[in-house]
Every structure is written in structure tokens, then in C-alpha cells.
Amino acid sequence: MSVEPDQIRSALGQVVRDRARHDRVVADPHAELTALGLDEAARAGMLACGSQRLLAYHHMVHGRLFKTVRGFLGGAAGRLGDDRLRADLDAWIADPGPQTVYLRDIPAQFLSWARPGWDADPSLPPWLGELAAHQVSIRTIRNDPREVGPQTEVGIELERPIACNATVELVRYRWAVHRLPTKLGPDAEPEPTPEGQAVIAYRHADDQPRFVDIKPRSAHMLELLIAGKTLREALFGACEATGETLDDEILGVTAVTLADLIDRHVLLGGLA
Amino acid sequence: MTNMRERLLDPSTPTGVGLGLRAEFMADVQQGLANDRVAFFEVSPENYMNRGGRVVRMFEDIAARHRLITHGLMMSLGSIEPFSDVYFKDLRGFLARHGSSWHSDHLCFSTEQGAVLHDLLPLPLDEVTATRVAGRIREAQDRLERPLAIENISYYLPMGRPQMSEAAFMTMVCEQADCGLLLDVNNVYVNSKNFGFDVREMVAGYPLERVIQLHVAGHTHWDRFDMFLDDHGATAEPTVHELLAWVVERTGPVPVLLERDKKIPPLAELLDEVTALQSTYDQALIRRGGAGHEPGVASVG
A-chain residues within 8 Å CB-CB of B119? Predict the structure, then answer.
């Protein structure tokens, strides 16, 4: 009884994914292929050109994914170090592995798996996971399929919602990782974020990702505007969240903030 | 015997030598630096599907001014997992806007137990696999509501003890699926170097009546594993020109793609290589005419 073709296909797939299997192939290729269910004929065929050819596939797959993830993580990858990144990536590829056909989405998938471990690891800077998430978000924003949209050229009204740039997200970083330089020096450390402050992350009409600090009350207001609330609802809701009473000073600051957000293409103007 | 070119190539099909569109030179193409220098651009839908921003806008601009042929990377026709409904929905949408009369992907597998490995992994060359994959290709054609052409891949490892040659395997798959063949002559050449067979004999064994497109590229030697790697990282070798010419003499006008994915030179250098390949292609068509072959589909490239 010969081995089913799917067993041969699966054997290659498992050696490609699993670093431990790779290492066992290095040590004893026949034993590992036997463990994968291949009979003598299948093993002989697969190893006819040497086990190096089998291992090459493992290196091609892991190398491509490593290069992609490292590139997206930027300075966070540098601080983490290649050895740790490679080890974590190897573990992730083995289980659960990439679930997307889009190579550009792989770093975010990997990070959502790896970050809890990084955040809990006292040997790593506590802000490293956040920096990695920020670095990945730069590409995510750049490639966001949602349209930025033009300015509406319509005046804003208190009783109506305001049109928002569809790519806008409000991010609450614990550290000001968005202010770190692109080339991260060995001693670089982000400042803690002031209480309640948030960051507006979005793609501008010029296609570039932007990150803008926003103070607590304005952040709450923007959050409610993004959710489709009217300007009045957003304004009162923001004051409630910060424990403030709406007064002329807040109204004045809000008018300036709204103008600034429209100027920055975060808000697009009144709804037609 | 069915001639797939008569079924799939029509007067709007670009023939002659085109170039794979890459991010590295999209801006140059957008500025018109490739105008009248290439018959078409080949694009991978996965690079633009479910994506927005500058790259997609550049692509849309290029698509409006150049003829395109689509070539996918991630269909994983050889896998055993069910196809992704979301992927096919996105792909159908893309092809509705930018597709030609067929779409192509690779005869390989790319997923293992749900993980998407982003590589073109080889299949066992046997009848059971051919029949199973042919069924998947028929399903993919039904889902896309358009014909598929299947590309032969370069591979570095025998998948068990092969029951047949790569050409015989491809023939069996194409016949059972009734699909087209995207013949990558560089891939056959790389395989011949890695496995020591006669490349001309192997190319001749492919079902040439089903060829609707050709791929050409260069390759390099991977010293670490002592094998030739199909990395599209060099200019096409003279042998690839010879194989291209040999096939075109037998098929007549078809789209021919130059692929370049590594060590990408300036666009001007790539266009010079396109011109050199076009010369090879044109001479092959002249020889074909002189030999009294039946005329193929008229070239508009």
C-alpha cells in the first residue's frame, strides 16, 4: 500500500511550517519523514536530491515572512532583536500561522499573536508592543481600503453630525511611541502619554498617514462624532466624560478645534 | 484536439512582450515612461484587492491607459482545504473591472491546515493528484465565471516518487479541467538544471495547443542549498530566449510576460530587455510564417 499523495503534500507543509520538524530533518531526514507517515518509496523520492532541498522550502517561507514582518515593525524589530523575532515568528508560523492571502496583512496578524507575550515579558521594554503596533498601523493606514473623501464644503451645524474622514481612528497609547524617531537609537525611550490624551491616526488626502495628539475633551468629542452623533451630542457627551460644564470658554476652544480638524482633513465638514 | 487560443484569445488580447507591474517602477509607468514599449502589463490582483491609498490610485491610473492581464498568486489550487469565499468574492470584483478573457494562477499548493504559507509549493506528480486538482480548477472557473490558465511552477524537491513528468502531469490536469496553460519556459529551464533533464524535450511534452500565455524570467544560483532558484532576479538567459522562440513558432501570437521581482533595475533597463525579447518573439513569428504554419490570432500588441 503506497502513501496517499495528500500525505506527501502534508509532510512538506509540516516541515515548512514547523521549526522543530525542520531541525529533526536536519538530524535524521528518514526518521522524520517516517514520523510524518511516508513509506520508504516516498521518502526515497523526496530525499533523492538530498534533504537540503526539503529544508530550502522551510527557509524560503520563513525568510519571506521574517523579512516582511521585520520591515513593518521597523524600530520595534530592531529593539526586539532578530533572534527573538525569528524565534517568535517560527512559533507563530507553526501554530496558528498566517491566515491571510495578503502579505501586507501578515505583520498585524503576527503582532496580535505575539504582543501579549512581549507585554508580559519583563526583559523587554514595556512600550515595545505598543511601538510595534504603531509601526504596523502606519502601513495599515496607508493601505486602508476606505476612501479618505473630499471636504464637503458644507458648513457644520450644532444639530447635525459632521462628515469624518473614513480612515480616522482614535488611539490611546500609554507611551508617546508615535513621537519616537524612525531610526530608533539604543537609548531611545518614549514619554508616558498625559492622562486622557489620545492620538488621531488617519490617512490624509495627500495619502500620507498622520498622527495628531488630541486633548481629553476633544478626543471624547471626536469619538462621538466618528460614531455619528450630532455636534451637540458630541459636545455635551465630551463634557460629561471629563466632568466639565459647557461654557463659553469651552465653546470657543471647540470652535478652534473643529476648524483645526477640518483643516487637517480629520473632519470633512457638514453633511450635505 | 482543442486549441485553447482559438477559444480564449480574441482581437482585444494583447500579444507580444509585456512586463509584470511592480511597485518599484509604478511611478515611472504612471509618468508614461513605458508608453509604446510594452504590449501589456501583468498584474497580481492580490496586490490591489481590498486595498486603498496611493498605490491603488496609481494602479487605477495605469489600468486606464494600458492593457492588463491578471495573474494570481494565492488561489492554492493544489490544497485540500475549501476555497475561501471571501477571496473569490474579492477576486471576482477585481476581475470584473480589470480582467481579460481569462485569469491565471499556479499549479501548486500554498496552504497547510489553514495556514497561508505565501509560497508556491509543489504537488506530487501522480494521477490521483491531477484528478483532484482538475476538479478544483473546474470549481474555481465556475466561481470566477471565466476560464483559468494554469502556470507550471519551478520546484526543487521531488514530491515522493513521481509517476509522471511535470509535462505529463500538466497535460492531464489541463485536459481534465479543460483549462488553458500559462507556460513558464524559465521554470522548465530551472527545473531541468535542478533535476538534470532535457529542457527542450520537456517543453515539447507540454500541451502546446493549450498555451495562451508565456512567462520568461531569469534565475540565480542559491549557494546555500546548491540549487538554481527561480527568483526572477536576473535577465533571461539565452536558453530562455531559445525556448520562447521554439514555443512561439508553434503557437503563433500570444502574450509573453517578462517577470522581474528581485534586484529590479531601472525601468529603462527592463524595457531594453522587453525589446530584446520582442525581437526574439518577432523572429519566431517570421519563421513560423515562413514554415507555413496556420496563422494564429491577429496581433494587436
Answer: 16, 57, 60-61, 64
Confirm whether B205 is domain-assigned: yes
Whether A101 sits inside 8 A of B160 (CB atoms) is no
A203 and A258 share one domain: yes
Is B298 within the bounds of a domain? no
Closest CA to B188 of B204, B164, B210, B175: B204
**Burial of residue B287 (number of CB atoms within 10 Å: 0-12, 13-18, 19+):** middle
Given A143, A176, A199, which residue is the final one in a domain?
A143
Task: Give the pLDDT of residue B294.
Answer: 45
Domain with A115, as residue range(s), is 72-143
- pLDDT tens, residue by residue, B53-80: 999 999 999 999 999 999 999 999 999 9
Helix %, strand %, coil % for chain B, to 5? 45, 15, 40
H/E segment holding residue B117: strand B115-121
- B301 assigned to some structural domain: no
ipTM of the complex: 0.93
Nearest residue on chain A to B159, judged by CA atoms?
Answer: A46
Tell me whether residues B157 and A59 touch, CB distance under 8 A: no
Tell me which chain B residues have a C-beta less than 8 angstroms from the C-beta of A5.
123-124, 126, 128-129, 132, 159-160
Q: Is residue A248 part of a domain?
A: yes
In angstroms, the CA A54 to CA A43 distance is: 11
Q: Which of residues 172-231 of A touch B (CB under 8 A)?
A: 203, 207
Helix A82-94, helix A19-27: angle, nearest 10: 100
The DSSP result for B54-89, as a single string, is HHHHHHHHHHHHS-EEEB-S---TT-SSPPPHHHHH
Which residue does chain A place closest to B124, by CA atoms? A5
* Domain containing residue B134: CATH number: 3.20.20.150
Number of folded domains that form chain B = 1
Are A128 and A166 found together in one domain?
Answer: no
Q: Under an 8 A CB cutoff, do A45 and B113 touch?
A: no
B254 and B264 Cβ atoms separated by less than 8 Å = no
The count of domains in chain A is: 2
Q: Give pLDDT, residue B292.
A: 53
DSSP code for A174 = S
The answer as to whether B299 is a domain residue is no
Tell me the nearest-neighbour CA distance from A192 into chain B, angstroms: 31
Transcribe A130-155 into DSSP letters. HHHHHHHHHHHHHH-SS---------
